[in-house]
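REQUEST ID: PR-0412
SUBMITTED BY: lab tech R.K.
PRIORITY: routine
TASK: structure prediction, single protein chain
INPUT:
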Amino acid sequence: MSPALTSSLSYRRSVAGLHSSAVQHAEETIKVPQMAESISEGTLKTWLKKEGDYVQADEEIASIETDKIDVAINAPKAGKIGKFLAKEEDTVQVGQDLYTLDSDAEGGESSGSSSEKSESQPSKSSEDSEPSPATDASKAKDMTQGNNKATEAPKEREVNPEPSNEPSEAKSDNSASAPAPSGDAETIKVPQMAESISEGTLKTWMKKVGDFVKADEEIASIETDKIDVTINAPKSGTIVEILAKEDETVSVGQDLYKLAPGDAPSGGSSSSSKPEPTSPENTASGNRKANESRQEITNKENEPKRPEPKASKPEEVKQPKSQPQSSGKDAKKAEEPKAAQAGARNETRVKMNSMRKRIAERLKQSQNAAASLTTFNEIDMSSLMQMRSQYKDQVLKNHGVKLGFMSAFAKASCLALKEIPAANASIEGPGPGDQIVYRDYVDLSVAVATPKGLVTPVVRNAETMNFLEIEQAIAGLGKKARDNKLTLEDMAGGTFTISNGGVFGSLYGTPIINAPQAAVLGMHSIKDRAVVVDGKIEIRPIMVVALTYDHRLLDGREAVTFLVRIKQYIEDPRFMLLA
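STATUS: complete
OUTPUT:
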């Protein structure tokens, strides 16, 4: 081995030693991040990478399971994983050492190893056979000649341009007018939706691959068991790839789509499909052709009608011999399978949405846990209807809200709950419960029917509101429910529920308790009935009301007393002023 080769090899070894020492020095310890305000520990469920793997910034590395949600652990920066400091199924605390990361390591071995290989190969060849200076000079001469030949071919192509040069120029102009994204594509993950929500069903993609989106623009919709969550773009850019399909279940922290940040294209995506700009000569020739075609059409219209077209009509309708002509009977036969639907026995299976599944689960829990019992009563609505018809126009004009029956029943319920506090209580504690929680406030849950299911947004501190304030609060929550804009805070809590099935024509029914509440009041439709009033038979508008209550908290006496109070307040609204 020559002295020069020996010195170069020793130099490479020293450089490699320096590089390895720098790598060891660059390793940093990554700790368990802050997961949520009330979460301090969790179970390390899965390592998605292994020691020695190279990871990109924000790439998911591990998953920690807590008592509320699953938390994805992402790399804070690009680098190579050194050593795991916690095992799967270990309980890890926030701030605990989790793994080491070498941020100076290069991604893969393509750049460094290939250069080393390219450097080592000439040294190996020189070690095997040392060429003479003459052979080196001849090789260099051959290489320069080859390069000159290679450069002559493009020059010949440039000297003799093809006629299709103009479209290529237009193509290059189009590509220049639509600027490319300014940065590499970023992987956008499913965001944190709420403290108690860890997954949902991806219902709709409102954008597709290649679309440009602005910052905070709505891209997708995720349906959870409580609310619908809109996914907005974190920044402006172009959607490069969609990583989840519609109707798939996605978890918080899961990769959702890739976004290449950048400004909006000046001409948009339609710029490439725009026609080429035409010169005055082209437009003139186009106008001449259009005029000639118009003249031909007018000449054809002005020509006298001949009997030949009539004879040619059957020829146009004629079909090949292999296909017999379809008569009226044949057409009827072809239509028979479509029309024969009388005895059809089709079945359609539709996946149950998350909200419907959650409602079904909660209703069964309520039926299984509560000792439900229902009591009924009849209310004469004459006095309340008279008050409503007298003041509804004035209320709508002055306050912009319609005066309905819900505000009166809500106010009457708040007054009755003050007298019967057990109807506003709940049972809490381990197992079947060992504590009764009484409340001096009323958070009124109002049942609202939506296309996806029944939801119960809450009117907070309803006991402090008057008729108009209650009507405004209920109208606002109803609109949010129908527009799928309800938040988790709008539906959380609730101490007593009112359900108005009368708007759909229900005569009477037994509502189900909204657990963990103690009772639910059911309103129904108003029907004219013959009743006895002061010894006389009169026609009065009657509503049947129902109270379903948990017999573990309320006895029959309290439940009947509660419903009688509702009857008294509604039949004479002035009585509420004395309560």
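NOTES: DSSP finds 13 helices and 27 strands in the chain.
REVIEWED BY: pending
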